[in-house]
Amino acid sequence: MLGSMMQQPLLISTLLTHAERHHGEQEIVSRRVEGDVHRYTYRDLAARARKMANALAMLGIEHGDRVGTLAWNGYRHMELYYAVSGSGAVLHTINPRLHPDQVVWICDHAEDQVLCFDLTFLPLVEAIATRVKTIKHFVAMTDRAHMPASSKVPNLLCFEELIEAHRAEFDWPIFDENTASSLCYTSGTTGNPKGALYSHRSTVLHSYAIALPDAMNCSARDSILPVVPMFHVNAWGLPYAACMVGARLVFPGPWLDGKSLYELFEHERVTVSAGVPTVWQGLLAHVEANGLAFGTMRRTVIGGSACPPAMTRAFQERYDVQVLHAWGMTEMSPLGTVCTLKHKHLAMGAEERLALQAKQGRAVYGVDMKIVDAEGRELPRDGKASGELLVRGPWIIASYFNGEGGDPLVDGWFPTGDVATIDADGYMQITDRAKDLIKSGGEWIGSIDLENIAIAHPAVAMAACIAAKHPKWDERPLLVVMKKPGAELSKEELLKFFEGKIARWWTPDDVVFVDSIPLGATGKMQKNKLREMFKDYRLPTA
Ligand code: ADP
């Protein structure tokens, strides 16, 4: 017997319609590329998104066509999120930190028809404009007054002129909720990037999940500043969840340094934020150096790479900002787990709590996960056994865009490439990416644990642990460290700092100090580059 409830497709346009109707006065604040701060409301957003939908139709964009964006977090990007997907086309967010050759490759592979870009990225667009095969129009996301005077870009249109030229009357079409809504390519640290193609259904379900109190905890009482970029995995879904719950939104534009972020947090009374550890490092350094405090910030989601306990401690104990350690991936829309406490943990001491928060957390409803051994056999959830992490759920990819790379699933599960433990309470902890593990004498050493210890040293700004070749042990850990500006630290001091914190044989064999550690397009340490740099490194123990 079937239930007798309405069949209403879960469409992204319904998020915007809801926000307009129920939170029409709620503010969206954006620091613009033009240099000023722009303010308007969800009502304005909805009207301008409808105008843009009319403009896209005029440009010949049809159901399923891809519209590319190269843009920061801001209101015009948000308008495209809704105008493009809402009208049945596919929003293709492109990471502007990629090499121009990669951007050309991605635009061609996605067969983008239109490319909208922030003025910051004009040089990049100029470099690719005559090379891309399918793009018919380029749209500069600015007004007439700021349009570039001369440019090497053919068919260049002005975003504000497109909006002004079109009516705000537009009926969002109703279609199958499984229709593609947005496309994001993985960073492709090895080989060509692959596209994760999200659907309206997956996006709306993911929004419900991330807004939950034990996930990112978003509500109409919050002022949310997503530092995570809208150009990579849809800013972890926050632009959608914000409409769902009617949260105030604050967009930082291109200004992501500690000082700019801090000023925006304070001035706009931000309560919640989200970003990768490297961003928070810059913010904490600024706050520490200037003896500042957070007036309204109460929670921050930290993920993308492991959040070191030293960072959690600084936020929570010094600044009263709760850290929500989260894990996910492009292929998972991205949210998989968040580390929030259970009722039985409420009486926990500070140290025990910090240890728990080093874990990446519990699965949000909708994400099912398990760990398996090399033969694919499920391992116990005892917090000790570690194996490859497999996931499944309605916002996890079943295949890459255009079937690239064949069927990625194993018996219906998506292999994440991460190695993890899961404890009896369901808390998952990543020990490493499979390709970053260090194999010493046949035993695995997890690099994240070693990095977390190093980063807890007050003189260390950033630390990456990689495998260096060893004649006896095969591989041994080599710690690559960037010191804080002006800090004094010797190799011996740092190695002594590991004593008692870890099994002796896990202690790195050597430390090298570097001026900088290479970061990838999503702000993560590029260990593959470091491995390349140190491939002939001779350990003192070798
Ligand atoms: P890319 O690195 O290609 O940009 P993603 O943004 O999808 O890809 O990154 C996903 C990967 O990032 C995960 O598989 C995992 O290895 C790592 N990651 C994400 N969050 C965390 C976390 N909290 N702790 C450790 N690793 C994480």
Q: Can you tell me about this structure?
A:
By secondary structure, this protein is of the alpha/beta class. Helix content is 27%, strand content 24%. The strands form 5 sheets. Strands 2-1-11-10-12-13-14-15-16 form a 9-stranded mixed β-sheet, with helices on both faces. The protein has a 7-stranded mixed β-sheet with strand order 7-6-5-3-4-8-9, with helices on both faces. A hairpin with a 2-residue loop joins strand 21 and strand 22. The site of adenosine-5'-diphosphate has 22 residues, from strand 14, strand 19 and strand 20.
Topology diagram in text:
Elements lengths: L11 H11 L4 E5 L5 E5 H17 L7 E5 L4 H12 L3 E4 L6 H11 L1 E6 L4 H7 L8 E4 L15 E3 H6 L15 E6 L9 E5 H12 L11 E4 L11 H8 L2 E4 L6 H10 L4 E4 L1 H13 L9 E4 L6 H11 L2 E7 L6 E5 L10 H8 L4 E2 L4 E5 L14 E6 L21 E9 L5 E6 L4 E3 L2 E3 L1 H9 L4 E11 L3 E10 L7 H7 L12 E4 L13 H7 L9
Parallel strand pairs: 1-11, 3-4, 3-5, 4-8, 5-6, 6-7, 10-11, 10-12, 12-13, 13-14, 24-25
Antiparallel strand pairs: 1-2, 8-9, 14-15, 15-16, 17-18, 18-19, 19-20, 21-22, 23-24
The site of adenosine-5'-diphosphate (ADP) has 22 residues, from strand 14, strand 19 and strand 20.
List keywords for this structure.
542 residues, alpha/beta, 9-stranded mixed β-sheet, 15 helices, 25 strands, 27% helix, 24% strand, globular, binds adenosine-5'-diphosphate
Helicity range of the residues?
25-40%
Q: What strand order characterises the main sheet?
A: 2-1-11-10-12-13-14-15-16
Find the structural class using helix and strand composition. Answer: alpha/beta
> How many E-type strands?
25
* Ligand identities: adenosine-5'-diphosphate
Q: Which oligomeric form is depicted? A: single chain
Strand content: 15-25%
Could you say which overall geometry the principal axes of the C-alpha atoms support?
Answer: globular
Detail the poorly predicted runs.
Answer: none
- The radius of gyration is 23 Å
Mean pLDDT score: 95
* Discrete helix count: 15
Main sheet overview: 9 strands, mixed
Distance between the termini: 70 Å
